[in-house]
Amino acid sequence: MMKRILGFLDKTIDFFIVLMLVGIVVTITLQVAFRYIFQISAPWTEEVARFMFIYLTYIGAALAIREKSHIAIDILVERLPRMLRAAVHIIVQLAIIFFLSILLKGSWIMVESSTDVSSATMRWLSMSYVYLALFLGSVLMIFYSVLRVIEVIKETFFTSNNSLNDSSSSTVSKS
C-alpha cells in the first residue's frame, strides 16, 4: 500500500515538473510572440513564467532529494566504516530536516500574511499562492528526507549488503 502511495506521489511530482517546464516554455514563447509579432506588451506572461519557475524550483528540489541527486562531496564519508557512514548520513538528513522545518514555518507565515496581497499584473492572483510553492516544496523535501533516514536505517541494520550510496569510488556522488 505504501509503495503504491509513493509511486502515485512520485508520478504526480514528475508530471507537475514537466507541466511547469512546458508552461514556462509556452508562456515565454507567448511573450516573444506578443512583443515581436503582434507589437503588444503582455506583462502577465513574464510574471506567470516567474511563478511557474518558483514552483519548478521548490518542487524540483524535493525531486532531487528523492532521487539523491543534490551535490555532495563524500570522499571522506565513503572511507568510513559502514556503521559510522550510516550515522553520518542520518545526521546529515536530520540536519536537513531541521533546517527545512524552519523554512516550512517561515513559508507558512508568508502564505498566511500575504492573502491580501495580489500579483502586480494579475490582480486576481493572491501572492499567497506563489508563496505556497515554498511551503509545499518544504513539506515534500522533509517527507523525502525522512524516507532517506528510514532507508539508511534499513540498509544498515536489516540488510547485509553495503549499499548506502550508489557509487563509493567517486568523490562527488548522490547523497
TrEMBL record:
This is TRAP-type C4-dicarboxylate transport system permease small subunit. The keyword Transmembrane helix applies. It is found in: Cell inner membrane. Keywords: Cell inner membrane, Cell membrane, Membrane, Transmembrane, Transmembrane helix, Transport. It comes from the Bacteria. Residues 24-154 form the Tripartite ATP-independent periplasmic transporters DctQ component domain. Belongs to the TRAP transporter small permease family. Its main location: membrane. The chain crosses the membrane at residues 12-36, 48-65, 86-109, 129-147. It comes from Caldalkalibacillus uzonensis. It is a multi-pass membrane protein. The keyword Manganese does not apply.
